[in-house]
Specification:
171 residues; mainly beta; eight-stranded antiparallel β-sheet; three-stranded antiparallel β-sheet
């Protein structure tokens, strides 16, 4: 019987040793906070097209870059190029949440000669602001402009070149 009591006592001690001690629950101090910022979806509308005007290509010593600034100023018409006609930057309207800054991204593309059937391309690089502040007029929208530049060589085929300006906005 003594052996049985010893075995029972050893089993009880082993069970107690294997059971972890339970601690009282402890709350974090200080407590973590949760938050969520809800914003209106952005809308972006093109309201005016970019126009380089008419460019006459004379004798060029190499490729020339013609640019229209975001403000609508034309540059690069020299060294064998003559420019005329109405020149303007593109204009966009962005709407969203008041007092937010919106990031603007404009990516390069090509303009296609629509007169010759689309076989000739002009390299086009847009010039857009990096950001636009919506201020207190976010809901009604803010206008911003996009300029750009094209590269013209003596081998550039005459015709009307057109293409899209790839502009996106995000918070």
């Amino acid at each position: 019987m003594t052996k049985f009591v010893r075995l029972a006592a050893l089993a009880a001690a082993a069970t107690l040793a294997a059971t972890p001690a339970l601690a009282a629950p402890v709350a974090a101090s200080p407590a973590a906070k949760a938050s969520a910022r809800i914003v209106k979806p952005l809308t972006l509308t093109a309201t005016r097209d970019l126009d380089f005007g008419t460019i006459v290509v004379g004798t060029l010593s190499g490729p020339q870059t013609v640019a229209v600034s975001q403000g609508g100023a034309l540059s690069g018409c020299a060294g064998g190029l003559t420019c005329s006609g109405t020149v303007q930057s593109a204009q966009y309207k962005v709407t969203g949440t008041n007092n937010f800054t919106v990031n603007v991204t404009a990516t390069a593309s090509n303009l296609t000669n629509t007169t010759s059937g689309g076989n000739e391309l002009l390299s086009f690089t847009p010039d857009a602001p990096a950001t636009v502040a919506l201020g207190n007029s976010g809901a009604s929208g803010v206008n911003f402009t996009v300029g750009g530049s094209i590269s013209i060589a003596s081998t550039t085929v005459d015709g009307l070149y057109k293409g899209d300006i790839n502009v996106t906005v995000d918070y």
